[in-house]
Amino acid sequence: MSISDPRFTLQRITLLVLALAVSSFGALAQGRPTRFWNLTQFTISEFYLAPAGTTRFGPNQCKNDKDGTVDHDERLRITGIEPGIYDAKFTDVSGRTCVVKNIKVEVGQIFSIEESELPSDCTVPSKKSRSK
Description:
The protein is an alpha+beta fold. It has two domains: 1-31; 33-117, Immunoglobulin-like. It has one helix and six strands; from the N terminus they run H-E-E-E-E-E-E. The chain has one helix at 6-31; strands at residues 34-39, 44-51, 75-78, 84-92, 97-105, 110-114. The strands form two sheets. It has a three-stranded mixed beta sheet, with no helix packed on it. A three-stranded antiparallel beta sheet has the order 2-4-5, with no helix packed on it. A hairpin with a 4-residue loop joins strand 4 (84-92) and strand 5. The longest helix is centred in the first third of the chain and has 26 residues, at 6-31. It is elongated.
């Protein structure tokens, strides 16, 4: 196939269009906020991210929400985080605290935590008996 062959030109145009589509998708993702989707059973009242394998948790991301919590099936805007792999620590309104490890966070994408993904070692505060 020579350069003057119409099939060669069509292949070049096709490759150019695909390259532009891929780069456009990346640009669009950068314009959208990175968000966390709460698919746990309860409303989350505190949500922190740390680089995977560390305990260097950043600020409470729930402060990015107008009511300061993330309801079940609600999405939360994530700020101040670079793309990467993170450990998430959260506390929900039941008082349960969980750490979910190795969550992939990408610019402009949604990441989620589902109830079925929670580790068995989430801490739940003990119920204190009231004396009368």
